[in-house]
Design brief:
Elements: E1 3-4, E2 11-12, E3 16-20, E4 29-34, E5 39-46, H1 60-74, H2 82-99, E6 112-120, E7 124-130, E8 134-139, E9 144-146, H3 153-168, H4 174-189, H5 207-210, E10 212-217, E11 221-227, H6 244-255, H7 257-269, E12 286-292
Antiparallel strand pairs: 1-2, 3-12, 4-5, 5-6, 6-7, 7-10, 8-9, 8-11, 11-12
Helix pairs in contact: 1-2, 3-4, 6-7
Length: about 300
């Protein structure tokens, strides 16, 4: 997307977007692209540990991401902050889960989603983030700034350590490794919207205490990249995802978003059982938005 201020007019051009289903039956990611409200976002739904299936076969993660994207993406109220929009979506998700019979005090049952949203104004950019959806900012001098923090990296590192221990113990298939790591994965869900954990939209009002939000100047900002954790590059044993975002942002600028996704998918296909690069699934859902802010 580009802003063209010729003649004092603000013209909004289309950003580059991509969303690609991983190995799951449903793409649990969702996109927000509301040019009139200047709001853009990436939502990454997460399936509950206790399985849930909607009337159309939908997973809880899919239902969560679609609901959040609809509420935040369709809002026409410019007076609401992005955090207020996320709070509205969080409340709606809580109501929807209650109607579906979900016991919200059990974190292994609730549907949830990570998110990153931006609202682009002529002088500044507002953002709000939960979980491990990330925002990278590209400046005209060539520098890249990672605005958000991967709040789930420390939780994922513990799960990957258990996964790696399973590999070292001789497990060779993803199904075996998943069963071996399932208890640790469930333990990670207990840290949702809790001290020492991470923020996530899951119907709990406490998400706002752990979310990151604010705004920064548009001065010398050339482009933005919003992406879900499906764009993370698989790492060898013992390597954390904590500092992955800067490498991803650099490669996307170098390769372009579509070619980066193709390259990453091929890398994941080379390790289908997730034994060379410990991770929970061969290929996660991948969603990203590239927004070019070059002015004329």
């Amino acid at each position: 997307m580009e802003f063209n201020r010729k003649g004092g007019q603000l013209t909004i051009l289309k950003p580059t977007t991509i969303t690609q289903r991983g190995v799951g039956a449903w793409n649990e990611d969702a996109l927000i692209s509301n040019a009139s409200a200047r709001i853009y976002g990436v939502i990454d739904g997460a399936t509950s540990i206790v399985p849930y299936t909607g009337l159309g076969g939908e997973t809880g993660g899919y239902l969560a991401s679609q609901l959040i994207a609809r509420i935040c993406g369709e809002s026409a109220d410019a007076e609401l902050s992005l955090m207020e929009l996320l709070a509205q979506a969080n409340n709606a998700l809580r109501q929807t889960m209650a109607e579906a019979g979900i016991q919200m005090e059990r974190k292994e049952e609730v549907w949830s989603a990570c998110s990153v949203l931006v609202r682009i104004a002529p002088k500044w950019i507002e953002f709000a983030q939960t979980g491990d959806c990330m925002l990278a900012v590209y400046y005209t001098d060539g520098t890249i700034r990672i605005v958000t923090n991967d709040q789930l990296a420390h939780v994922d590192d513990r799960t990957k350590a258990v996964w790696a221990a399973g590999i070292e113990a001789g497990l060779t298939t993803r199904a075996e490794l998943w069963e071996h790591s399932k208890a640790q994965i469930a333990e990670g869900r207990a840290f949702a919207n809790a001290d020492g954990g991470y923020s996530v939209i899951n119907g709990d009002p406490a998400f706002a205490d752990y979310a990151e939000f604010g705004r920064f100047s548009r001065t010398n900002v050339q482009a933005l990249l919003l992406f879900s954790d499906g764009l993370y590059i698989p790492k060898p044993l013992g390597e954390s995802d904590k500092e992955s975002a800067i490498g991803i942002a650099s490669l996307v600028r170098e390769m372009g978003l579509p070619r980066y996704i193709e390259w990453l998918t091929a890398l994941e296909e080379s390790d289908p059982d997730c034994t060379q690069f410990p991770r929970m699934k061969k290929s996660d859902d991948k969603t990203a938005i590239w927004i070019n802010l070059s002015e004329f």
